[in-house]
Write a structure and sequence with these properties.
The protein is 46% helix and 4% strand. By secondary structure, it is mainly alpha-helical. Among the domains are: 51-95 and 160-254, Bacterial muramidase (Helicase, Ruva Protein, domain 3); 369-424, no CATH class. Strands 4-3-6-5 form a 4-stranded antiparallel sheet. A two-stranded antiparallel ribbon has the order 1-2. The chain binds calcium ion. Calcium ion binds next to loops. Keywords: Signal.
Length: 425
């Protein structure tokens, strides 16, 4: 879960760590699956830093130690935490890597909600039935969603990450690209150690600082982690996932989870629907959508779970959804739309649901990052300003695409397709 667009904010599946962001900031890493994460972490060989780098790292450490002590970290806690910690070239390499090709949302969802992941989720639901029931009762968060987050973040605990949290965050802080963020997380990690919840040796996780079964960042841990087992320790790292699952429930609850309400439902849009209204931020009462002729995909009246937005993740030629409050709550865990869809869809499948009814436009190929940059430049050159060309299809680009489509009397779904790029060339 997480914070910020702190790692490259690709909209779909990058190979970075996911996690629980902390309040008020956008999640860190969009849509990484546990498998992708594991592959990324295992893909590099550890290289020893050179002596000059080590000297610089030690100088940073000395400065940071003084800072930590003024923040109330005891010298003995700091020194024990940093005992043997050195610069990790692997973390530097992973931090610098950026995916050139992003996956289409259907490919991402295929992997994220695979039959294996669904069946494992059902096995876990049975094996942990009484624990999940108790957690659901206390936090009023649906067990299937807690299971789904667990499945997405670490494949139900099987890829929790093996990087020392202190070493990983120290490397990111030293490297400097996101020093303030990394130092803030590092201070939180030291506070956790000082509290006695965990030892430095056991405090492990992804290279970017996310820890435990459901990948909490240290600041999120401090705020939301729970001791559900009642042993006095909030242990999200142990083989027993109980505390981690309760912590996830507490986090979702804190951000407004509505018990027994869906993340969204697949819908059918009426002929002539104005796709300019299909915007995640355009939340309207269900009655408004009903009046426009939006129904469920089976033609039933749209269910009412409060204000809804229309989501068209693959444009006008793929499945379309009405999304409710819980969709936004999932995005507090990881801000990517693809991630929120995957959590919701996997949860529904674990509970017995099937695939979406409408077909994805599987013949559409994904644009590379360079092609997205080209698309943004072409749109801007034609007077449809994308507010920069960063290769990330965000709200400004979608809005520019819509403007272009409207100017051509095309269906203004805002979808960045290869055929659109062809048109612009
Ligand atoms: Ca505990």
């Amino acid at each position: 879960m997480f914070t910020r667009h702190y790692i490259s904010a690709l909209v779909l599946g990058t190979v970075l760590s996911g996690c629980a962001s902390h309040a008020n900031t956008a999640p860190a890493t969009p849509g990484a699956t546990a498998a992708a994460k594991s592959t990324a972490e295992n893909a590099t060989v550890t290289v020893k830093p050179n002596p000059a780098e080590l000297a610089d790292f030690n100088a940073w450490k000395t400065g940071f130690r003084a800072k930590a002590l003024t923040k109330g970290i005891k010298a003995a806690v700091f020194d024990r935490a940093f005992d043997g910690v050195t610069l990790s070239q692997q973390v530097i390499k992973l931090d610098g890597s950026q995916a050139e090709f992003t996956r289409q949302i259907w490919d991402y969802l295929d992997t994220a909600t695979s039959s294996t992941r669904v069946s494992t989720g059902r096995e876990k639901a049975q094996a942990l039935a009484s624990t999940l029931k108790a957690i659901e009762a206390r936090y009023q968060v649906d067990a299937k969603v807690i299971l789904s987050v667990w499945g997405m973040e670490t494949n139900y605990g099987s890829y929790r990450g093996n990087t020392s949290t202190i070493a990983g965050l120290a490397t990111l802080a030293f490297e400097g690209r996101r020093r303030d963020f990394a130092e803030q997380q590092l201070l939180a990690a030291l506070q956790i150690l000082q509290s006695g919840d965990i030892t430095p040796e056991r405090m492990k996780g992804s290279w970017a600082g996310a820890m435990g079964h459901t990948q909490f960042m240290p600041t999120s841990y401090l705020e939301y982690a729970q001791d559900f087992t009642g042993d006095g320790k909030r242990d999200i790292w142990s083989d027993d996932p109980t505390d981690a699952l309760a912590s996830t429930a507490a986090y979702l609850k804190r951000f407004g989870w509505q018990h027994n309400a869906p993340w969204g439902v697949e819908v059918s849009l009426p002929k002539g629907f104005d796709y300019a209204n299909a915007d995640q931020n355009n939340r309207q009462p269900v009655s408004t959508w009903r009046a426009q002729g939006v129904t469920t995909i089976t033609g039933q009246p749209l269910p009412d779970f409060g204000d809804a937005a229309i989501l068209v993740p693959a444009g006008a030629h793929g499945p379309t959804f009405a999304i409710f409050n819980n969709f936004r709550v999932i995005r507090r865990y990881n801000n990517a739309t693809s991630y929120a869809m995957a959590v919701g869809h996997l949860a529904d499948k674990i509970a017995g649901g099937g695939e979406f009814v409408a077909k994805w436009p599987r013949a559409e190929r994904a644009l590379s990052r360079n092609e997205k940059i080209e698309l943004q430049r072409q749109l801007t050159a034609r007077g449809f300003d994308t507010q920069g060309a960063d290769g990330v299809i965000g709200p400004n680009t979608i809005s520019a695409i819509r403007g272009y489509q409207q100017s051509r009397n095309q269906v203004a779904d805002g979808y960045a397709s290869a055929s659109l790029l062809e048109q612009l060339r």
